[in-house]
Amino acid sequence: MPSLSSCWFFTTLLCFFLDTAFSGDPFVYFDWTVSYTTLSPLGVKQQVIGINKQFPGPILNVTTNWNVVVNVKNDLDEPLLLTWNGVQHRKDTWQDGVSGTNCPIPAGWNWTYEFQVKDQIGSFFYFPSLNFQRASGGYGGVIINNRAVIPVPFGLPDGDVTIFLSDWYTKSHKDLRKDVENGVDLGVPDGVLINGLGPYRYDDTLVPNGISYQIINVEPGKTYRIRVHNVGISTSLNFRIQNHNLLLVETEGSYTVQQNYTNMDIHVGQSYSFLVTMDQNASTDYYIVASPRFVNSSWAKATGVSILHYSNSQGPASGPLPSLPEQDNPSFSINQARSIRWNVSAGAARPNPQGSFKYGDITVTDVYVILNRPPELINGKWRTTLNGISYLPPSTPLTLAQQFKILGVYKLDFPNRFMNRPSKVDVSLINGTYKGFVEIIFQNNDTTVQTYHLDGYAFFVVGMDFGVWTENSRSTYNKWDGVARCTTQVFPGAWTAILVSLDNAGIWNLRAENLNSWYLGQEVYLQVVNPENDSNENILPDNAIYCGLLSNLQREQSHKFQFSIGSSPLNSNSRMILFMLLFIALIESFVWHV
């Protein structure tokens, strides 16, 4: 007969395994190989960057609070980092995948990202963050679904479609970055890709024969959620579907007031979700169009066109593309941007309404007016600046320098206004106050639309207008339902104001999303330190790669080819089965010994 202590041991073991099997947020696992593959998206063979030979890469489809483990093997011929545009990495700056937070993954090595999509929903994307690599691809989607207990503020769609828009050049990213370094303008793109494919041949004089194009198959009467991302280099694109309304429902993790648009300007790095109902008679297929904004007729060839195909379609699309009213009028675009509002009554990642965070009632603690300028020569090299400072990434990432208390890698002296002094190259950070509430005004002195993105946070877009921002501009701010997002546009000769609550400790990248501006130095990092010891903040990961001044800590090739066990999701049910099998084995062992 089993002893009392044996029974106690058995009961404790049972409780432990049941608790482990049924508690905690699910983990999902992915193994990715990032490599070159030869494709001809515009009819010319070229190297593109694929993930597991896919271009665009696979979509991470997860749910709020899930833990994501992505094991990345770098099969390129140069260092690599992937960053997760819009994923906030709460209290875990180590997973952000930019030069200030991580040492690059050397060619032939692999590294495993592990992060939780904590308290987020929405549509985002990932991309390679170094060396202009995004110009050759390497991007893919991130979908964060609501938990089952949180209602979505619209009916369940009949399908979910992701669309990637990108201006595209047949030059390699290496040649493009050399041009940028030498002060050569990127010029007119060779085309605009939709989901990695070239345009439908809507015009024989503009589109050569033999180019593969995207076809999106739909059923009449059905409603689809269409997530659209501008993952391109530097071109603002207008998105529209012939004869169909776009009901805007979400942007970059925020549910919006639901409004119909016939078209939407989507600037570099921005993401939107629309509901589109297939309510036409399908006499023909319909054009899906992405065309450049604020350009001249020489850009005519740079138009992306794909096809929306009803199952009962009676013929191919033909005739001219749907026109774009006010094509060259930035006032139309800025008014459209102002019309996008936060749905204050809807819940998102949490059950309480989005509007329960009354950002307009919070006292601002710091103000930064950040002014950009076109590329200029600094010490004989072409650079771009923010407030007269061009950021040059140090060989030691900022996070490692902070962790190991290495002096001289960076300074906490980024100016809160443009300084009337010669521009310079420096590693100057914004010294943020934990739980402070910051107002940032972007003033665009360039001649093209620029977009700015902040890692680690969603910010409130409270105002934008033409001219120079002044203190009086605050009277125009939207202090109630300005949309919360992570990427905002700033029109040439105009300003955009945002408010952000610094509640996420770490070192976070604020950057131009336009690759040519970013590559030449238009970025700054924001350091936010929690003065109290927070046990929930993630520490330096065990698999950290060391470089720069800490290269001596790196074990030789310790990260090569160490792929994870599997790439299929391991949710709570899978964990339960796994633990129960182990538990059964332990029971057999227990019975054998008693």
Question: What radius of gyration results from the CA coordinates?
Answer: 25 Å
Helix fraction bin: 10-25%
Strand content: 25-35%
N-C termini distance: 7 Å
- Major β-sheet annotation: 6 strands, mixed
Regions with pLDDT < 50 over 5+ consecutive residues?
1-23, 565-582, 590-594
Number of helices, where a helix is a run of at least 4 consecutive DSSP H or I residues: 6
What is the overall shape?
globular
User: What is the overall pLDDT average?
Assistant: 91
Structural class based on helices, strands and sheet pairing: mainly beta
Number of DSSP strand runs = 32
> Numbering strands along the chain, what is their spatial order in the largest sheet?
10-9-12-17-14-15
Written description of the protein model:
The protein has a six-stranded mixed β-sheet with strand order 10-9-12-17-14-15, with no helix packed on it. It has a six-stranded mixed β-sheet with strand order 21-20-25-30-27-28. It is built from six helices and 32 strands. Helix 1 runs antiparallel to helix 6 (572-593). It has helices spanning 4-22, 173-181, 330-338, 398-403, 515-519, 572-593; strands at 27-39, 46-51, 60-63, 67-74, 82-85, 110-116, 122-128, 140-145, 159-168, 191-194, 215-218, 223-230, 237-241, 246-251, 254-261, 264-266, 271-277, 286-292, 304-310, 366-378, 381-386, 389-391, 424-426, 430-433, 437-444, 450-454, 459-466, 484-485, 487-490, 494-501, 506-512, 523-529. The chain is mostly beta strands.
